[in-house]
Structure formats: structure tokens, C-alpha cells
Design brief:
Length: 285
Amino acid sequence: MLHRDSASYTTFKVLNTLFMCLIIVTVMIPLLKIIIDSFDGKASETVFRFFPESFTLDAYKVIISRPVIFRPLIISVVVTIIGSAVAMTITSLYAYGLSKKDLPGRKFFMGIALVTMVFRAGMIPLFLVVNQLGLLNTIFPIFLVHAMDAYYLILLKNFFEGIPSSIFDAAEIDGCTPFQTFVRVVLPLSKPGLAAIGLFYIVFFWNQFFDYILYIQTKPHLHNFQVFLRSLVIETDTQGFEGFSFATQSLKNAAITVSIIPVLILYPFVQKHFVKGINLGGVKG
């Protein structure tokens, strides 16, 4: 054990701080390059500048003014909201049931969830199931395939188990049904856990792009903003953005920055619940 006043502890603290600063710089440099280049009319993939050489807002003006971006952006927002709502509903209901010690078949249902953490069907079986259900080339597979994550289920189950049993007894005495107890008692007391897991789901559905390519093949108008961004950045597909007079790299980075903004706006509202929710859900056995 290191004493707080010892030289070893001071050395450890200094080295640990330097190491964390190195990680922060490593993460921030690519992000700063993207943001700075989005304002630079002479942006280049191989040159890093701390300040734009030719400051301009033209890339953002073009992105906002071009209708080609509106449909993918709306699809991303709608699917993220619906997908997160469906996933949170299924996960929270499943976790609430598993948190009850007297649930018949509790170990069986818990085992089904745990199996999915180790054994996954894979891309081809999932594609065949979606095709057999007639859901191919629709939005539904995007959020139905990922309607529940076993890891988040376990975190939320542990969080529910941390609620004192006396609260459930009081709700039952007051005449609440199990579902009313869940809605009126459990959910309000579980805001930290719900906020943390909800953020995970939102980020996942917002960043999703491969499932759109896999399950929506003949209706590209149903692709989301991330697929549009991929075609713009990787395939350099600037269809719908003709006529701009600045660097293509500036346009790409502006589009990437726009895709980051929704998560950056959302995170501060759930940050106060985030650490508490993960800690309370993760430390209980």
C-alpha cells in the first residue's frame, strides 16, 4: 500500500496524470483536426493546423441548405428515438422480472439472456430470419434485431435489486399492482440507471450504419445519416453538393461534426446520472 505522503505515491500520481493526459491528447487531436478542418476552406487530409488557414462557414451553409441531407437526418432521429424506446422498454421490463427472487423459471430466463452474451447467431442467420419474416428493405429490422442487450439487462437488473424491499411492500399495501409498482415506484427511483443505459442505446442506434446496408438494399431512400456520411467520406460521393468552391475535405469534416452534435447536446443532461448508474448497476452481484 502506498502512503499518501510517500515519494512512491507522489511518483505514481505524477506518472498516472501524465499517462491520462497522453490519452486525452491522443483522443483530442483527431477530433480537433476534424472540427478545425471543417472551418478551413483549404483543408487537407495530411496537414494538421491549430487554426484554419482560410476560415469559412461555407461547408456548414452547404450542408444546411442542401435537401439531400434532410431525409437521412430525419430517418436517423426517428429510428434512434423509436429504437431506444423499444430497447429500453424491453430491457427494463425483462430486468424488473429477473430482479424478483420468486419469479417462476427465473434461472431459465436469466440463462437465455446470458447465452446471448457468449453465443451470437451471426450476420447470415439474422439476415435469413429477417428475410423470412418479410422485414427486408424496411426500417423494422434496424431496431428489432437490437431490441435488447444482455449486458445492459444485467446492469439494470442489479440496479432494481438495489431498491429496498420495504418500498415494494409499501406499494403493495397501498394497492398497487406489479405493473403499477414498476411504473410509479421502480422507474422514478431508477433514473440514474435508466439514463446511463438509455445513453448507450441512443449512441448505438445513432451510429448504426451497417444494418441499413445489410437489411435495406433496394430502397436507398431509407438509409440514415451515417450511411450518407459514409458514402460522402469513404466513397467521396458528393452528389447533391455540386457547385461548392472550397475543399472537399472541409465538406466531409463538417458533415462528421454535424453527426457528433446531437450526442454532445444530449450527454450533459445525463452526465450527472451516468457514473452513479453504472456504479450501482455494476458492483452488485
